[in-house]
Amino acid sequence: MCVLERRFGIHAPCAWREAAPAISTSRQDALAASLQAAATIEPMGDEVVVPYSLPLDSNRFLRRECPTCEREFKWYIADEGEVSEQVPEGGYFCPYCAIQAPPTTWFTQAQVALQHGLLESEVAGPEIEKFVDHMKDIGRNSGGVLRVEGGNYRRPARPDPLTETDDMRRIDFACHPEEPVKVLDDWSGAVHCLICGNPATA
What we know:
Elements: E1 2-9, H1 27-32, E2 42-44, E3 47-54, E4 61-65, E5 72-76, E6 92-93, E7 100-101, H2 109-140, E8 169-171, E9 181-183
Antiparallel strand pairs: 1-3, 2-3, 4-5, 5-9, 6-7, 8-9
């Protein structure tokens, strides 16, 4: 399980960002830099921290999606004590189209849906509830001048966690052996290294 967090601004538009340090760190550090032991929301000024997890398959691969060609693949999450490469300048290369993108742009549609569900249930929902309660108080204290209706709002339930299957086929690279990937079973084109973009050799 890969544990991440999201920070949401309460009084400003929410900016999705992975809880990651500078781009020169390893992918494993970038994904899990802010491990949260608690499963609750932690207020931080005008921000709310929402811990959540993304599942790995049985071989410690995390599902990803290219922001350019939109194909899914998996990259390896090193276990404790294993060596992993530093994030290359400009981000990772897609194994399919070999186009480079920043490390925070590889979420799958299901992972994005999970994040949006958390935003609604854990951030927006409580704020709307507080607003409705506040308006009710204003109505009660107005001496009948104001009438507040529509006060039956219920926040959405927290979304179910994602699950992972052991699909796709593994590809290893002579150039960066610590960074294997898994690609779609029916992919017949070249498979490119995440770190340097070079195709795997047969």
